[in-house]
C-alpha cells in the first residue's frame, strides 16, 4: 500500500516545492487508501514547506 501512495505522489510532483503548490485535497486523494488521509495530507504539505526553507 505504501508503494502505491509513494508512486502516486511521485507522479504528481518531483520535489517538495511542487507539493507546496498542490492543494491539500489533491494530496488527500492519493493517500486516502492508507487511512487518516486528512491529517496526513496536511502534514505532508507542511513538511514540504519546511523543506523548502531548509533546502
Question: Can you describe what's shown?
Answer:
With 55 residues, the protein is mainly α. It has one domain (2-54). Helix content is 78%, strand content 0%. The chain has four helices and no strands.
Low-confidence parts, pLDDT < 50 over ≥5 residues? none
Largest sheet: none
The count of strands amounts to 0
Give the N-to-C terminal Cα separation: 29 Å
List keywords for this structure.
single chain; 55 residues; globular
In short, what is this structure?
With 55 residues, this protein is mainly α.
Topology:
Blueprint: H1 2-12, H2 16-21, H3 24-31, H4 37-54
Helix pairs in contact: 3-4
Amino acid at each position: 500500500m505504501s508503494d502505491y501512495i509513494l508512486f502516486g505522489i511521485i507522479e504528481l510532483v518531483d520535489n517538495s516545492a511542487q507539493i507546496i503548490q498542490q492543494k491539500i485535497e489533491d494530496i488527500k486523494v492519493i493517500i486516502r487508501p492508507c487511512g487518516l488521509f486528512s491529517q496526513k495530507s496536511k502534514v505532508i504539505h507542511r513538511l514540504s514547506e519546511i523543506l523548502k526553507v531548509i533546502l
